Amino acid sequence: MSVPSGPSTSGRDLLVIGLGTEHRGDDRCGLDVVRSLPGGLPEGVRVVEGPGEATALLELWSGSDRVIVVDAVRSGSLPGTVHRLDAGPNGLPSRLGATSTHGLSLADAIELARSLGRLPRRVTVLGIEVADLGPREGLTGPVADAVGRVRAILLEEIGVAVPGAPGD
After folding, report:
1. Rounded to an integer, what distance in angstroms lies between the CA atom of residue 115 and that of residue 28?
2. pLDDT tens, residue by residue, 137-155
3. Whole-prediction pTM value?
């Protein structure tokens, strides 16, 4: 799936949240993406590792204008496929399966926030199609490759030059 870039935030009130479970194989991909981001990002950009429970996202993104969530997804696409989804008025597509081991998925948390009037103005989900969610260390090859691609997408969104990108 092609991942078009969105408008640059120019570092204005952006929260980037990486979700995942440390020792559940590919489920940790969101954590690996945010951990790979460089320090010294523009003012107004916050990067955090998300909570294990999806409902805690409501508090985490409270007061944020724009949020980008990086998480593992299962839709039946090839492992390593990157999905860019807008959680706007129609919510997330039902074809994306939850990878949460907790009560609510990311899609459920978004809909709960919407119903409570606590959804940020813009929520984008960068989902990485996963292969192995079993208890293991590290990512499978295709998912590890996707981490680098999502990192580049995030840096472009934030307005940080990506080494090796056209024009560099």
Report:
1. 28
2. 899 999 999 999 999 999 9
3. 0.84
